[in-house]
Amino acid sequence: MSDGAPQINSPEIRRLTPVLEPGHTYASVTDKISAIVLTRPTSFGWIIGFTLAFGTVMMLTVALAWLITKGTGIWGINIPIGWGFAIVNFVWWIGIGHAGTLISAILFLLNQKWRTSINRFAEAMTLFAVACAGIFPLIHTGRPWMAFYMFPYPSTMGLWPQFRSPLIWDVFAVSTYGTVSLLFWFVGLIPDLATLRDRALTKPKQIIYGTLAMGWRGSARHWHRYQSAYLLLAGLATPLVLSVHTVVSFDFAIAIVPGWHTTIFPPYFVAGAIYSGFAMVLTIAIPLRKAYDLEDFITMRHLENMAMVMLATGLIVAYGYFFEFFMSIYSGNKFDLFLVNQRLHGPYNHFYFALILCNILAPQILWSHKARTNVALLFVLSLVVNIGMWLERFVIVVISLTRDFTPSAWGRYSATFWDYATFAGTIGLFVMLLFLFVRVMPAISIAEMRELVAETSEEHE
Amino acid sequence: MEHRSHVYGVVAEFVGEHELLHAVEKTREAGYRRIEAYTPFPVEGLPEALGLRRNNVPLITLIGGLAGGLGGFFFQYWASAMAYPMNIGGRPLNSWPAFIPVTFELTVLGASLSAVFGMLALNRLPQPHHPLFNVHRFAKHASSDRFFLCIEARDPKFHISEAARFLQSLHAKHVSEVQDD
Hints:
Chain A is mainly alpha-helical. Chain A has helices at 11-14, 26-38, 44-70, 84-109, 119-140, 166-199, 203-213, 220-253, 265-291, 300-331, 334-345, 349-361, 369-372, 375-402, 417-440, 446-460.
C-alpha cells in the first residue's frame, strides 16, 4: 500500500500504525466526511453500481411476485427437504449482521479506538443484512400475509403463539435485534445529522436532516444523558447479539435430526456469525475507502485488526467442525456416524470439501503479516469466507435433511432458478441499500472522529 | 426587566475543549449558575465542571428492562397456562425454561426502547427550534469545530453587558447576545 507497508514490519513500529492519519482537525474530519454526502457530485461508478444493484432488486420483486402467485412449489424444496435455500440464506444473512453489532457494541465496551471509523457503516450493514434475512422466513411460511399469526395478538379464536417453539423464539429474537440495531444506529447518527443540517446548502436537505436531527444542539446536559444511553445500549446489544444467533442455532439444535442435535451449536454459530460478518465488513470497507478516499480514516490498522478477528473466529469455527466430528464418532450413535460418512462420501461431499477449503484452510494465510496488509488479497479472502459460511449452512441444512433416520425418508435437493433469483435478489437489495446509505448518511461517525482527533492530539502533546 | 424578556442569554465561542473547560470553571467561580456548554462531541470532564449530577437514563432503562422481562414472562405464562391451556402428554403448562428466550429478548427490547426514548424525553427532544440557533456562528460551528458557553438570562446574577464583558475576559473568540424570539 501507498502508506508504506514495508517499514511497518517490526512489531514495535506496527503498534504505532495509527487509527487516524496525523494532521486532522475537528474541521477537517467534519468537512471530509460530510462532503461525501453534501457536496461531492454523484460519480459515474456510483450510478453504474446502483443501477446494477437496482436491476437485481427488480429481479427480486419478480421472484417474490411469482412465489406469491404460485407458492413455494417454484423452489427446489419438497419433503423431506422443507428448509432449503430460504433457511440457508436466512442464517447466512443474520450471521453477517452480527459483526456490525460486535464492532459497535462489544468493541465500544472494550474501549477499542479502532472501531470508530468503521462502526457506522458496519451498523448500517447489520440493518440491511437483517432486512434481507427477515425476508426469508417470512416468504418461507408460504403464506406471508398470514405471518402476523406468529405475533401474540388477541385473536377471535383465543389462540396464542406456541411459546415453547424455537421458531417463535426466532420471531422475538430477530425482531428485537432489528429494532435495537436500528435504535443504536439512529442514536449514533443524531449528532451527525445535526452537523449535516448545519452544513446543508439546500432547503430540502436542511429540512430533512433537520427533522431527523430533532433539534440536537450539542448541549453538555444532552451529551451527558446521550452518553449514558449509548453506553447502556452497547451493554444491552452485547448479550443480545450472542442471544440472537444462539436462538437461530436452537432452530436446529432443539430438533432431533442427526447433525443438528448438538450442544456445541450455539457457540459455534455465534463464532461463525462474527466470522462471516467481519468478512462482509472487509468486503465493504475495502472498496469504500478506495472510492471515497477514506484511507486516512480507515487505515491499514483497521484492515489488519479485522483480518485478525477473522482468523481468530475462523479458528473457533474450525474447532466447532472438529468437535462435531469428534462427538459423532465418540458417541457411537449410528445415525451420527452415518452423517459423518455422508458429509465425507455422500452426494453433497463436494460442498463439504469446498467449505473446509474456504473456511478453514484459506484463512490460515492470515497468520502472515504480509497477507494481512495486502488489500487485494484481503478482499478476495473476505469473499471466500462469505462463500464458505454460506456453504456451511447449506451443508448443515441439506445433508442432515436428505439423510435422516430411515432410508425411505431420504431425498435429494437441488435449487431451482427461482431459489437463485431470490438469493441474488437479496444480495442486490443489500448492495443497493449500501449505495444509498453512503450517499445520504455519513458513512463514518463524525462526532466520534472529532473525539478521536481530541484524544490523538492529547497523546502527541 | 422588560428588556430582559427578549434575551435568552449571552453566548461565547471558544476554539478548543481546554479553553471551554477553563471558561466553565471560571464562570462557575464567578457565581453564575444557569450556564450551559455546547460542544461538537462529548468532552471529558465537562459534566463535572458544570456540576451535573448523575442522570436518570440508567434508572429509566432498568425500569423498562424489568417491565419488559416481567411482562414478557407473565404474558407467556398467562397465554400458555391460563388463557389457552393445552395438555400435551401431561407436560407442565408452566414450562418456564422454554419461556426464557422470549423473556430475555423482551427484557432487552424494553430496556433499549426506554433508554433511547427516556434519553430523548429528558433532553426535551425533538425540539425543532432553540434561541441559540438565532446566533449565526452557533448554527454554523457548534456542530462542527467550535465550543460554546452560554450564560442564560434566567441566571439570578445575569446582566447582559456584565455577562458579555465577563465572557470576553475569558479569551472567547466571539461573544454574542442570544435573542429569544
